[in-house]
Amino acid sequence: MSRLHKAWAAALAAVVLAGCSGGKGEGAVADAGEATAITFTPSPVDVAAEAAKLDGKALFAQRCGMCHQTIGMAVGILSRRPADASGGLLEQREDLSAAFVQAAVRTGILNMPRMPRAEVSDPELAAIANYLSRGKP
Ligand code: HEC
Predict the structure, then answer these.
(1) 92-130: burial string, b at 16+ Cβ within 10 Å, e else
(2) How far, in Å, is the centroid of ligand 1 from the Cα of 135?
(3) What are the pLDDT digits (tens) for 38-56?
């Protein structure tokens, strides 16, 4: 019997014995369950507070700049829109709201692929959206 199997056997025996002990009843089993409960809920993150510590302009250059700065492909695509006065550059726009920027990034929009939290975290995206929207929610 391997060491792991021995450990399981010992744990099983403990459970069986606890079940047979009679006098303590269900309460004892419930207490034991509470003591060993494992939860996988991540600790909550205060997105706004975390975002306030970040540099939205620098993050925009890092995460979005390859498409949205200089000759990135999004600059070319967005500059073709009629009535575009920004030259296709998001940083020149005055009409962006933070909510629109976040929705575009998380869901993707036409030729732009969506970006999941593994690529840009919620606080990072909030900082970028705040920068691009010039503070407009
Ligand atoms: C792989 C290239 C790529 C990356 C990376 C990228 N985008 Fe885009 N994005 C695009 C393209 C292309 C469009 C134009 C979509 C269209 O109209 O077809 C676009 C459009 C947008 C729009 C919509 C503009 C409008 O008026 O419709 C927003 C907002 C935006 N991107 C924000 C971001 C932000 C913020 C990031 C970084 C977190 C980012 N994008 C990263 C390619 C990219």
Answers:
(1) ebeebebeebbebbeeeeeebeebeeeebbebbbbbbbb
(2) 19
(3) 777 777 889 999 999 999 9
